[in-house]
Amino acid sequence: MRDFCADRPGKGTPSCVLDQGRWQVELGLFDGARQSDATTRTETWDAGDLFIRYGLTNLTELQLGVTTWNRERTTDRATGARDTAEGIGDLSIGLRHSLKNPDGSGLSVALSGFVTAPTGARAIRADGFEGGVLLPVSIPLNDDWSLSLTPEFDWVSNSDGDGRHAAYTMVAGVGRGFGQWNLGAEVWFSHDDDPIDAVTQSTFDLTAVWTPPSLPDAQIDFGLNFGLNNDSPDVEFGVGVARRF
């Protein structure tokens, strides 16, 4: 059986694929973010960010994801007026297929794609079906350090609900194991080419993963993200767990 490998934490996508017939459940227990500018302050909370993976073959896995509760509150800093939206998030279905080294060892490459259905609460869901394609790559730098890259192309809804446009994302990260712990750092860059209001975001993210000695098929993880420009959340923190069956 392959080494335990989870998508959590961080924004990058691993190149590993589950063994055939194995299940893995990954759950974001809590995630909170805050973003402020001269006029507004936006606070976002997620709980129950559920991601389920299943090994269809030794090279391909099926993925299912949904956020069970999301809340976003925007406050006008001048008047104190608040606008709140909350509810269940959209449902996503995806596949990941290994192109090289499905266990994630050595130079490992995979191709991943997903489709998101607008099943969430009215104030939160997307304006129609969306999707994306990713190419996760893992490169060993030496016996201790590894480099991961995740270029991504998405097709998403326009902010006015009429039509679709492209969005582009790149994540680059390094990681190292320290006994029961694995620590990592990532730089995330995303450009949403919305014809109404194009947005570019970037963050610097730190991650920590602890694997209990008695549970090699499980982990507890932590993430701390810092915005690198005005269009990104100022700070974000999350904690979650993952378990393979």
From TrEMBL:
Organism: Brevundimonas nasdae
Annotated InterPro entries: FApF
Native organism taxonomy: Bacteria, Pseudomonadati, Pseudomonadota, Alphaproteobacteria, Caulobacterales
Cited Pfam families: Phenol_MetA_deg (PF13557)
Protein name (record): Transporter
